[in-house]
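Supplementary Note 3. Input sequence used for the single-chain structure prediction.
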Amino acid sequence: MSPAQPKRATSRAHPADPCTVVIFGAAGDLTSRLVVPALYNMRRTGLLSDNFSLIGFNHGKMTDNAWRNSLRTALERYVGNNGGRFDEDAWGWLSSQMTYHAGDFDDLSAFQSLAVKLRDAERRRGTKGNVLFYLATPERFFGDVIEKLRDADLVDDGGSEGRFWRRVIIEKPFGHDLASAHALNERILKVLREDQIFRIDHYLGKETVQNILVFRFGNGIFEPVWNRNFIDHVEITAAESIGIEGRGPFYETAGALRDVLQNHVMEVLSFVAMEPPDNFESAAVRIEKLKVWKAIEPIPVEDTARGQYAAGTVDGKHVIGYRQEDRVNPESSTETFAAMKLNIENWRWAGVPFYIRAGKRLAQRVTEVTVTFKQPPLHLFKSNASNAGVQPNVLKLRIQPDEGITLIFGAKVPGPTTNVKPVEMHFSYADAFGKSSANGYERLLLDAMLGDGTLFAEREGVEATWALMTPILEAWKANPPKDFPNYEAGTMGPKSADDLLAKDGRSWAKL
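The predicted structure, written as discrete structure tokens, is reproduced below.
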């Protein structure tokens, strides 16, 4: 008998299992802006089963048609903004599977009547009893909704021996510090098994984030130099030019560290820094990601920076400062920018600093990983611009927008002298594969319907990243900033973020 072969990433997408998707928070922005457009795209590309049903659960009375019409309006806007053509057939099919269910998240009777609708969907749509519950609600409702699902007998699927499955997608934020994340995990794990829980981070649905693994482990020329012997430092930037978009109450309790660094950026960092997994089973990938986070040394507060934007100019338009935003404390100390230096103490990365930053109202919208390589041990050539040494080689992995990969290296300038100038070799996703209207949720929804948790956070990982970030939050709270606002909208953040690299003799790469 030949030995079992390790699982490799599949090259062909499997259509989702028959199922019903129940969206809690069905009238919210997340549902109309991201989840339903993703389901629409899945229908267009043949990833949804023909045996499918969609139920929207929300407080407030609304007819099925009113809900469908509100979603169609949002979907047409989404398609138009992405330069696409509205597919009447795909929408017609999807909308015919949709029903609205009114009820409060703490009302058991609403969940019991939901059970009736699920049995009806199983009978009429052939969903086989499979249900994916999507919690697109504020965090404070997560525990209540899951417990009411249990009380209405909606989550018991009999485990691996069951004839159907029941799974729950939980949106971020998953806790606001280590204690709250641990408490939420304890609460929901009294109801659900870990394999039923899909803690979503939409960054992991982005093609360019997944491509980090392909880039590293699918190409023989990069992995041999992906270590401390050849890499000088790594930067991860998640910059946004927009402000808080009317979400004052949310952002006042979140801030840039909780909103972006603890989840999105740390997930990207794990893909950049992880060891090759034994296979691409969910457990193997998660183990390697967890090893990275646990190898990060405690972060000294002096290796962090925070900021808050003042009024300024973005894209040629004057914008107000954070403290003047709607429903924001005029003396707020909430950070809209956060940066820090991380050290991963393992054999691969010892001595290689990772600099991460995220912020609102910055000069441009860009999420990018920049890998700067060490210089050759002997400078034989000079730069064309000056007598200075040749610039280091740099690899840029652009996650959004204009997704792609750029390699910067030195080339000889034509002429009788040997001068070197940095040049760029660029790969563009749009040029190679065409522009896509996908928003990243398509892959994550499909994986959840197939029971693949590879691109979702698990308990230990969530708590590991919170364990790193919570001491920083506590230190910041104990020492309120005296200089807020400390950067002008339309710049790349406060001077303290530049100082993080300057004290190491480095500067942020040009984006």
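DSSP finds 13 helices and 19 strands in the chain. Confidence is low (pLDDT under 50) at residues 1-6.
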